[in-house]
Amino acid sequence: MKSREQEYREMFMAEALEGYDAMSQHMSVLEKRPQDEAALGELFRLLHNLKASARAMGHNEIGEVAHRMETIFGQIRAKERPFAGSAVPVLFTGIDVLGSMIRAVGANEPLAENQALLENLDRVVAGEEPVLADDSEVGSEEDATRKLELSDLVYIPIKKLDHLLNLVGELIIDRDRVLTLARELGDTTLQSVTAHLSRLADDLQYSVMDARLVGVGTLFNKFPRVVRDVATAEQKQVELTISGQDIQIDRNILQIITDSLLHLVRNAIGHGIETPAERVKAGKPEVGQLSLSAQTDRDNVLIRISDDGRGIDVERVRRKAVERGVLSRDAASRLSEAEVYSLLFDAGFSTAEQVTEISGRGVGLDVVKLAIDSLGGQVRVESKLGEGTTFFLVLPTSIAVKGALLFELEGHPYALPLMHTDSVVSLSPEKMHIVGGTLLAKVLDENIPVVRLTELLADDDAALPPASRANLTGLQDIIITNYNGRKLGLIVDRFLRQQDIVIKPVSQPLDMIELFGGVTLLGSGQVCLVLDVPALTRLFLARRP
């Protein structure tokens, strides 16, 4: 895995070399048309960007040259001086020197200070005549060759990577079909060839997925300014700590969670962290602490947004759920803390009134949850009243290929994403009991509601029939799902296997059914529907007796 420094250097090199090529082109345009406003504007912009990125990377020598040249082009744009006379060869020399220094960064070579060039640029800024060498316009053949060197880094539009990954997905599907066929035929030669094909397909898949990975720091590092601005607007003092910037994740996933992270950070400052006066009164330091971190969690990425603010008042949330008719008083009293926190993500709970009643934690969190659900991820909350709140985002590293549990129901294969699969168990009916018309199974000292998946998938909006153990014979294969702090046991006909699948969108008319999150093709050629655990959980809650 690349280090953060190496990744940033490559990003700087790609952008800087592209900028250098563009500056050389615009300089040639200006030499022919000194009044060309578009070329002048682009040169000024490119030099400004190069100055900023070079200084940010610690390449101050590049930053100094770019700064002085930016100043000169600013004068030219403002009509304070023309693009003419002895200033022109100095500016061309400056472009050449910038190119040499950028290439030196790529080769890990030390950067020369180029004092003569800097002095000449200062003279031009001051309106004085620069000191030119007899030859700054005639370059050597070596110089010309160097200017034609191509970067070994290329920009690839994300759409091209998306298309390439889709093609790899099709290849994976066909590979599985060929592997199945080879096993059925029992042809050892064919099995040997398909085994090699399988390794090549895996290598290609992971290579393409690796090309789409970026460090979460590319997003995290934008938050110090956001935190500063929001804290200033709220008249609060907040210190942000960032860690785990090197953790790699699919660029598309990072794009999708951007708004969610922004909302959670704003919420933490606006409604979680107290004012300096409130913090002092509560015995806390005036400066609130906010942390944004990332780490790997098995095959997933775990992002934490944590504050040391007010925390969530669980009892207030219970009362508000009862007042709004979301739950009965008795049902609300039986909720665990995790179940109470999950209420905050319900769309019906997101009203402006919650800003004061529950520290603003209900505002817009349904949108956050929907974004994470779309990725096949999870959101969890931990909080302690008066001490702070932490949001956990559990995200896959890639959204194209997902681990899934395959099972059979009424002769048809189905898949459940592993992200929402807590465990699988086989229990006899005697190990289950009925409470309030709902079947419960005790798994690791936890009572979990259980339902036959065939009943849940039945095309009927009516309430589920009261649970009965009479139609359950022998060991029951149960998949324990976990979504938003709620566990649900799904009784299926039999487990098949666990494997990576390529999920494709469902076509009409199945795309109108919320329960299906996509479709995949198995090695046998069978079409396999991928069930959506969040939708199944919501359906069970709506239809339970």
UniProtKB/TrEMBL annotation:
The UniProt keyword set, sorted, is: ATP-binding, Chemotaxis, Kinase, Nucleotide-binding, Phosphoprotein, Transferase, Two-component regulatory system
Classification via SUPFAM superfamilies: ATPase domain of HSP90 chaperone/DNA topoisomerase II/histidine kinase (SSF55874), CheW-like (SSF50341), Histidine-containing phosphotransfer domain, HPT domain (SSF47226), Homodimeric domain of signal transducing histidine kinase (SSF47384)
- Keyword Zinc attributed: no
What would be one Pfam family of this protein? HATPase_c
| Annotated ranges, domain Histidine kinase | 149-399
| EC nos | 2.7.13.3
Does Heme appear among the keywords? Answer: no
Do you know which PROSITE patterns this protein is assigned to?
A: CHEW, HIS_KIN, HPT
**Could you state a single Gene Ontology molecular function term?**
ATP binding
Q: Name one GO cellular component term.
A: cytoplasm
Ranges for domain HPt come to 1-105
Q: Which residues form a coiled coil?
A: none
List every position bearing Phosphohistidine.
H48
> Which is a GO BP term held by this UniProt record?
chemotaxis
**Reactions the enzyme catalyzes:** ATP + protein L-histidine = ADP + protein N-phospho-L-histidine
Locate the CheW-like domain: which residues?
401-542
Its job: Involved in the transmission of sensory signals from the chemoreceptors to the flagellar motors. CheA is autophosphorylated; it can transfer its phosphate group to either CheB or CheY.
Q: What's the protein called, per UniProt?
A: Chemotaxis protein CheA
Q: Which organism is it from?
A: Hymenobacter gummosus
